[in-house]
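Page 42, continued from yesterday. The earlier attempt failed because a stray header line got pasted into the input along with the sequence. Redoing it now with the clean sequence only.
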Amino acid sequence: MDSPFPVRKIIHVDMDAFYASVEQHDDPSLKGKAIAVGGQHRGVVAAASYEARKFGVRSAMPSKTAKQKCPDLIFVSPRFPRYKEISRQIREIFYEYTDLVEPLSLDEAYLDVTENKKGIESANQIAREIRQKIFEQTGLTASAGISVNKFLAKVASDINKPNGQKTIHPDKLEGFLEELPVEKFYGVGKVTANKMFSLGIYKGKDLKKRSVEDLTRIFGKSGAYYYNVVRGIHTSEVKPHRIQKSVAVERTFLEDLFDEQQINEKLQSLSEELHTRLQKNNIQGRSLTLKIKYKDFSLFTRSITRETYFSSPEHYFNTGKKLWELRPFDKPVRLLGLSLSHLNTEEKKLVSVQLKIPFTEFED
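This time it went through. Structure tokens are written below.
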């Protein structure tokens, strides 16, 4: 596939069931068992072991639902200081190869190894070495995806999970993207995917048939993005010091919510999930926003800003309830969301330079 952009070597490294694997590593009695990191009686699953995933247990699932799916599920309280300690070890391994490391969370990151500190031509070899060093130093496994941009590297890292890696070569991009289900494309959520399905767009090749004008008319400003990404054009750089402005969780419900108990249950679940995500990324914030979308698609948002950082699920939940009481309508609710802004990350802004260097060899 011809491209007007310099070809890059991007690796996406993703730890395998990170929190759960740490717990199984530190407590050998848990090895081979279905475990979930999180609270058993309330809240959501922060992580599930592969043994638990076989029963359909997933992260962000309410703990009650997880227990119903897997009655023998063992719940383990999260130990975020321990996860952060191991994450720092892993990051030091990344920095042996490149300074262009963009952490997405404690357990995954992008690396641009187009030019690297060891002068290794093969991005695939670098990924193998990194995964081996992670295992030797932590006892944990990681998966990796290698390709010419961040989107494809992330897709590739899921293909041979757990404890594997996959390279999507420049000369294989076109065929790969044409066969890729649209829900796998970065930026295509459930709502957009369902809209695409209704239009007969199921794979990349279906999306590729649509003109940029057609896609823009249907999807607004996202249309141009879909037009480009299905052609392998995704120029987002690996940003070593990405400044995150907000963290949000939201849920669209299959059936509209009517009563207060349902709302409270969903707010509780969202609060737990938001807290887990914030801890995972070592983030705090001072402004909480509640988002409500009604059955008629009208939208209501309200925010509260504090002088000190929010620090617990109870804070998010209690504040979310106060914001809920400010709603102007009593109508069926289609969507609820909580987001946190005024983050501590904005106080740590750093400037970095992204290198753009083409390469000639992209090995298996």
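Notes: The chain has a mean pLDDT of 89.
Reminder to self: strip header lines before submitting.
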